[in-house]
Amino acid sequence: MEKRIFMIVLVVALGVLVGVKIVSKQAKAPILQTLIEQQSKILESQKHVQQMMQRDSGEDNGGSMSEILQRQKNLEGRIAVLEQKLKGQVAPSAPVRQAPPAEDFSKKHDIPVDHSPVYGNKNAPVTIVEFVDFQCPFCARFHKPMAKAIQEYPNKVNYMIKNFPLGFHAQAKPAAKAAFAAGEQGKYWEMAEALLKNGSVLNDEKFEEIARDIGLDVKKFQKDYKEKDAQWEEYITKDMSLGSKVGVRGTPTFYINGRKTTARDVASWKQAIEASLKEKN
């Protein structure tokens, strides 16, 4: 009989260990609570089984029963310790991350010209805006098809840059300032094109080299670049604030007449321009 009762205790202990493994895997409070409740019920049932087996045997096993009950108490103590450990290990459920809202390409945003130079006819019926990071390789890649497409619509399409330098591109903001400084001599677009082509090697020396190549007065460029830094910083900050407001999530991000567009190759740009022209008529 004593051997049989010990086996019951062993089975219960095994059940506890399995329960611990389940809780550790699931790491959820409701399962933990259920396990605790079930363990208590199993232990209570075990006491009844022990008592029934003692009565059926007709034997006086007081000493043996005391030992078994002591084992049971020890087991209960171990369960209590395990429960405390599990409570410490079970982390609160992480909040469910919500997916970002779907893009609304029909929404028209107000994107003012403000301080931005405009390429092309300022009164053109179609305006393309690019939020750019001059170190971003994708900006360089997708700028070309857009620039090629607008050449086919003289006086009908204009274009402007808004700066959105990304934090991990150390030279993106200085490059934007270099473009503004070049604009003081009427060479903003020449500088911008060169910056995009040389995005992987930008630094102050490269800015000066480009300034020389595009025919700037280098000394004036250097002066405007450094002495007007606070002004350029203000322009960039305004561009970034505007970008956040209109839903820019990365670069490049293009807008055509205020609506975000997925146009990226010449054909899709021409399609987008035609649709905007038709809407204006």
From TrEMBL:
Cited Pfam families: Thioredoxin_4 (PF13462)
Keyword Transit peptide: no
Region (Disordered): 92-111
Keywords per UniProt: Disulfide bond, Oxidoreductase, Redox-active center, Signal
InterPro entries named among the record's database cross-references: Thioredoxin-like_fold, Thioredoxin-like_sf, Thioredoxin_domain
Domain Thioredoxin, residue spans: 85-278
GO molecular function, one term: oxidoreductase activity
Family assignment from sequence similarity: Belongs to the thioredoxin family. DsbA subfamily.
Name of the molecule in the record: Thioredoxin domain-containing protein
Organism per entry: hydrothermal vent metagenome
